Amino acid sequence: MNMNDIERALRQLRLSGIHATLETRLMQAQASQQPFLETFWAILQDELDRRRTRLNERRFKQSRLDERLTLQDFDWRFNPKLPRQACFDLYTLKFVAEGGNALIIGKPGTGKSHVAKAIAYQATLQGYHVRYLEADAELARYALAAHDEQQRMLRECTEPDLLVLDDLFLARRISDPSAELLQTMVHRRYKLRRSIVVTSNRVIQDWGKYLGDNTMATTILDRLMHHAAMLEFEGKSYRLKEAAARIARGASHDA
After folding, report:
1. How confident is the model at residue 191 (pLDDT cuts 50, 70, 90)?
2. Is 18's pLDDT higher than 80?
3. What is the CA radius of gyration of the chain?
């Protein structure tokens, strides 16, 4: 038996984490006269770490998130009146375990999407199946899709443990097929006790206008809000702040 035999066996067993670090761990053990069990545990931990990383990457890719955000990198000082405690309560993901929902409503640029994406990313790290959607764009795609494609999209919106619908009603009025999809997915997820996070610039009192049907709006909100946290975001726009900072930096470079 030699290292080539061991490496061949590791490949056959698909132990890529051990394969990647085995020589280093052996040199470490020899240099420090490390006990066998301690060395063996380090080797096993390398494999577990590699598998955990791959699994996290796979969940992140499946979620369709476009960035890895956290609440730690959020600038709470810029808008001190934001509901920080409520955001961190959602970040614990207790509401996902309980099948609850969250509605984050408020002015543009106040951080609603950041908080929603941070919650979604944290959920992927905790082993949940997550799907993030830019709401209006996905609803519009559904309205234009063939029947079989619509059924696939509906399944993909129903199956995850956590569904994030970001910037709902950004375009105000949505089409009738889009409204029907929204109602159906909310209803199905409500029956299955699967969580939804919705962010929107539009106050819920106006949702009937954007759906074109007050009864449908009432039905959707009834299910969304039955077990839900309602967060209101007020304050200044982070995007305007960042734009002003970029302009200022550009002016200083030109001076």
Report:
1. very high
2. no
3. 24
pLDDT in tens, 133-153: 999 999 999 999 999 999 999
193-225, pLDDT tens digit by residue?
Answer: 999 999 999 999 999 999 988 999 999 999 999
Query: What are the DSSP calls for the chain, one per residue?
Result: --HHHHHHHHHHTT-HHHHHHHHHHHHHHHHHT--HHHHHHHHHHHHHHHHHHHHHHHHHHHHT-SS---STTS-TTTSTTS-HHHHHHHHTTHHHHTT-EEEEEE-TTSSHHHHHHHHHHHHHHTT--EEEEEHHHHHHHHHHS-HHHHHHHHHHHHSSSEEEEETTTTTS---HHHHHHHHHHHHHHHHHT-EEEEEESS-GGGHHHHHT-HHHHHHHHHHHTTTEEEEEE-S--HHHHHHHHHHHHHHHHH-
Q: What is the DSSP letter of 233?
A: E
Structural domains of the chain in order of their starting residue, each with its CATH number: 3-63 (no CATH), 84-241 (3.40.50.300)
